[in-house]
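Standup, Tuesday
Yesterday: got the pipeline producing structure tokens again.
Today: sanity-check two examples.
Blockers: none.

Example 1:
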Amino acid sequence: MKQIYRSKTAFVLGWVWLAFVAFNVWDLTARYNGKPSLVAGAVLGALTAVVYLVALRPATVVTEEGLEGRNPLRSTFVPWASVNDVVVGHTINVSYGAEQMLRLWTPMSTARERARAQRRAAPKQQRGRFKTEPTLSKAEQAAAEAFAGKTHADWVGEQITERAESARRRDVEAPPAHASWAIDSFAVLAAAIALVVVAVVI
């Protein structure tokens, strides 16, 4: 089963930006007035390329066969048995093969998110004789314990580690990891550059 992990905030804001751009493109087309419209379109195109690269494309994809890290300009696939170690800091860093490193762009762990996770892990002090906290169901308690003191990045890092250890226990033969340039990213960049050239030349 394929699971895709992203920064939800960045992903949502990216789609909000695309909606904003779509409205402005319609407006620029309906009220076309030559050079100023072309320049505005080129600026929107350049900004949209940046938003796509840093907000919409990055993803961590977990499949049965291995881990795929989609970064702005490259995609790297690492079979589970090739994963050597997983270290979670600000980003998730996966070492594999012969001292190779895959730095996943998402999910990231900010200082604020880590502080919130530590507050969740701290024991809650009960004041007075009456409980002010709602009673959680067993499933909610289990979820709270699983995430106590952990950020989203920590949790995803654990999933990657568990999959890799399971593959090593089963002694699965690891096919070679491979990386490729992101054709979609270069297509978006090429379109943005074309818009800028048109705005400058015409």
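Example 2:
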Amino acid sequence: MKQKQMKGVCLLIAGILFLLLFFSFSGIEKTKLLDTDGRNFEKAEVTNVISGNLSNSGSGKQTVELKLLSGDHKGKIIQATSSQSYLFGAKCKKGMKVIAIINESKGELLASVYSVNRGPMVWLMAAVFVAIVVAVGGRKGISSILSLVFTMLCIFFIFLPMIYKGISPILAAVLVVAFTTVVTMCMVDGITKKSVAAMLGTIIGVVFSGAFALIFGQVTSITGYNVSDIENLVYVGEMTDIKIGELLFAGILIASLGAVMDVGMSIASTLNELKEQNPQMMLKELFQSGMNVGRDMMGTMTNTLILAFTGGSINTLVFIFAYNYEYQQVINMYSVGIEIMQGLSSSLGVIMAVPVTSWIAAFLYSKNQK
């Protein structure tokens, strides 16, 4: 069978499997956690600023006039309040597009400004990103975008419904990681020795990452219940079948996937190129070359992951530095321990993907060689 045909068959099977999983976990009747009857978020335009007492920093409260641009009351002009803060509301000006919270009760409308309508700009920036990826990567760039979209669909329409129905988040994460890895590699390179080596190296590397995270949590007494917003999560867990305690570790599996996949494909691709340039290279030589390339990648990729998790906890680091926390206080903080666990686990996944992918690729490329 030709390579294009194999790729097409693989994607067809993946599409059928995705649809089967999608319909298996669709139609979930969600437990009502909050009464939102009569409340809607609608697009609106500020037609007039009636009054306001904003401070120099922009915080305060305004009374504005809005023209609704969506919903059952589209075109209607209503009065609303806008409580400007760092997280909610907006500093309204005439002509500004905003999102309004509309509460309807007994035919009466009560409205408040939720935020600036930033949706169109978010999609515009996403479109710019896609255009740059396609311009630089060509067909490979298109495949990368499609694989990214597929991964996000799997997370939102397979992973989340699975854990909502009570399936272990760790098991669901492993299944989604394996599924998306196979489809991504197939989209980028088809079914080849290179893609198979990258697939297996990625999946095994991510499993190592999850296993290390579980061991780290056990020996340091860190569980999935030591995260921020745990009170809200516990309430969700009590009202649904979601296993809250496993969410932290499932998140680590998903977070490490991108970096591990990058290493897996890079090593498999490098060894494939070496084999094509020098068909006489044996398994041992190919494996050693993969290890040499992988060692160079380990330093940069590990730094990338550690810095990514550090950047995500920069607010905590600022507090630690500004308030001059003591060492014993810092090292025993749950938030610090979780960030260290995430960084080390993801980095270990990258490190373990190097020898695994190198050996699998070297074995496959030299399989028919005496």
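Quick observation on example 2: Residues 140-365 form one domain. Strands lie at 39-52, 60-68, 77-84, 97-105, 108-116.
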